[in-house]
Write a structure and sequence with these properties.
The protein is an alpha/beta fold. It has a 5-stranded mixed sheet, with helices on both faces. Helix 3 links the parallel strand 2 and strand 3. The longest helix has 18 residues. The model has no long low-confidence stretch (mean pLDDT about 95).
C-alpha cells in the first residue's frame, strides 16, 4: 500500500466506523457484494459511503436516525466509494438504470432496488427530509 492509500485508509476509518457501529456490514470486495446480493432475502439497506461533507453531515446521520424507526430493513450493508472501488463498482451493477452517485442509499428487496436516494436528494437537503424519505420507504417495503 502506498503512502497515499495508507493515509486515506486512516482518514476514512472513522467514517466506516460510523456505519459499522450502527450495525452495518462492510462489503469490501466484488465477491462479497455478489454473495450478499445473490443470497439476500427480505429488505436490505445499502449505503454507498463517501468521504465528502454531505456524507458526514447528512447521509450517515440521517441513516442512523432512520434506523431508529419501528419498521426498518432486515440487513444493513455498506460499500465505500473511492476506497473499495471494485466492491462499489460491483454494487452499482445491481443498481440498474441508476446513475452512480456517492453518497447514496439503496433500499433493496430480495436483491432488487425498490427505492434509491441519490446524492442530489442528500446534498443541500435538511436531515429531516432525508430521514422522512427513508422511513417512508421503510414503511412501504420493510
Amino acid at each position: 500500500m502506498n503512502p497515499y492509500e495508507q493515509y486515506m485508509k486512516e482518514v476514512s476509518q472513522p467514517m466506516r466506523d460510523e456505519l459499522t457501529n450502527a450495525g452495518f456490514s462492510e462489503l469490501t470486495t466484488p465477491e462479497e457484494v455478489n454473495e450478499f446480493v445473490s443470497t439476500s432475502k427480505g429488505s436490505s439497506l445499502v449505503v454507498v459511503n463517501s468521504v465528502c461533507g454531505c456524507a458526514a453531515g447528512l447521509a450517515r446521520p440521517a441513516v442512523r436516525e432512520a434506523l431508529e424507526h419501528d419498521k426498518k430493513p432486515e440487513q444493513l450493508v455498506t460499500v465505500f466509494a473511492g476506497q473499495d472501488r471494485e466492491a462499489t463498482a460491483q454494487m452499482r451493477e445491481y443498481f440498474e438504470g441508476i446513475e452512480p452517485s456517492s453518497p447514496s442509499i439503496a433500499l433493496m428487496k430480495d436483491g432488487q432496488v425498490v427505492h434509491f436516494v441519490p446524492r442530489e436528494e442528500i446534498e443541500g437537503h435538511e436531515m429531516e427530509e432525508i430521514v422522512n424519505n427513508l422511513t417512508t420507504a421503510f414503511n412501504q417495503y420493510c
